[in-house]
Automatic annotation (TrEMBL):
It comes from Nematostella vectensis. GO terms for biological process: protein export from nucleus. GO terms for cellular component: serine/threonine protein kinase complex. One of its GO terms (molecular function) is protein serine/threonine kinase activator activity. Residues 1-298 form the Protein kinase domain. It comes from the Eukaryota. This is Protein kinase domain-containing protein. SUPFAM superfamilies: Protein kinase-like (PK-like). Residues 227-249 are annotated as: Disordered. Belongs to the protein kinase superfamily. STE Ser/Thr protein kinase family. STE20 subfamily. It holds the Pfam family Pkinase. Residues 234-249 have a biased composition (Low complexity).
Length: 348
């Protein structure tokens, strides 16, 4: 087992698909302990994933029920989530090059969702997964919402996601207002800005505040931003240069957490501009996912994002390496038996 999910009621395990010798992730969710709302959420997530097909959306290979458990089969994203990478290797935040490479892929997936009239509503580091080849996939679609045109022809949502307290730091103010104006896909752009801050600082705005205080801060205070210290784009005094022409930062390999230096970090002006554009309180002023993909902060990448990510993540431990082998593959025997008769082609 490599983790837990769905309000701690699901076991996330690594399994070997014997016919293809491919490692997979099996999420085993106990259905007997779910409320009616939670069962509807599971159903929504499975239906949503089955309807989506894009390189930057985590594919769902198959679902089936064994005993009282729902088994959902996904590819193994070897580096885990961006939250995992921050926790393991970049506790004071990632370098800008790595952030730009990740966000470029995230924006491609998000643009696909928005073209399908889908609001993700859960854009956070824990829902951005990175594979062994540097591919980035969005997950966490259980809170997603598909927009429908109203009588005036505009597409607005007035639905507030259930059990979403854990998403408060990333959630746009207009969702929290729950007023007649509603919200649209621009709410995800606000979340992209918070995600960028999370990746840059290694921590979130409003950290340590109770939910009520976070809500009040979002509704009545100025938007969050990167730490105030700025540098121009040529300042690389604390960065290492690679063949990509971008900084790599440093990778933490020790288990001992270093002292935080967020207040000492310097970010380029173009990165500040990117974040500030995303987290504007007025949703009509935020750029679209497509226009953000053309922002100077994203366009600075000289290579394709997966190539850059594969280089920048050198030295970052992969998911299975973070667990003892007996623990990570402890359920392999039963999974091999149950998965042996299936092929990847059949799942898709």
């Amino acid at each position: 087992m490599i983790g837990r999910g769905f309000y701690d009621s699901a076991k996330v395990c690594v399994a070997l698909h014997m016919p293809s010798s491919t490692f997979l992730v099996v999420k085993r969710t106990d259905l007997d302990v779910q409320s009616t709302d939670q069962l509807e959420t599971l159903k929504h997530e499975v239906q949503m994933l089955r309807s989506l097909h894009h390189p930057n959306i985590l594919p769902l290979y198959s679902t089936f029920i064994i005993s009282q458990e729902l088994w959902t089969i996904f590819p193994l994203m070897s580096y885990g989530s961006c939250a995992d990478i921050l926790s393991e290797s970049y506790r004071d935040g990632m370098p800008e090059a790595l952030i730009a490479a990740i966000l470029k892929e995230v924006l491609q997936g998000l643009d696909y969702l928005h073209r399908m009239s889908i609001i993700h509503r859960g854009m956070k580091g824990g829902h951005v997964l990175v594979g062994n080849d540097g591919r980035v996939c969005l997950s966490g679609l259980r809170k997603s919402f598909r927009l429908d045109s109203n009588s005036s022809g505009s597409k607005k949502a007035h639905d507030f996601p259930l059990h979403a307290v854990d998403l408060l730091p990333w959630m746009a103010p207009e969702i929290l207002k729950q007023d007649l104006l509603g919200y649209d896909c621009s709410a995800d752009i606000y979340s992209i800005g918070i995600l960028a801050i999370e990746l840059a600082h290694g921590s979130l705005p409003y950290v340590g505040l109770p939910p009520t205080k976070v809500l009040l801060e979002k509704l009545h205070k100025a938007s969050p931003s990167l730490c105030p210290t700025r540098s121009d784009a040529s300042d690389t005094s604390t960065m290492h240069t690679t063949t990509t022409g971008t900084d790599t930062g440093s990778v933490i390999t020790s288990l001992e957490a270093p002292a935080s230096n967020v207040g000492q970090k310097k970010f380029s002006l173009v990165f500040h501009q990117f974040v500030d554009a995303c987290v504007q309180n007025d949703p009509s002023l935020r750029p679209t996912s497509n226009s953000l993909a053309c922002h100077s902060f994203i366009k600075q990448m000289k290579k394709k994002s997966p190539e850059i990510l594969a280089e920048l993540l050198t030295g970052v431990p992969r998911l299975t390496h973070r667990q003892e082998e007996s623990s990570a593959l402890g359920d392999m025997d039963v999974m091999e038996t149950d998965l042996a008769a299936m092929s990847l082609d059949e799942w898709q």
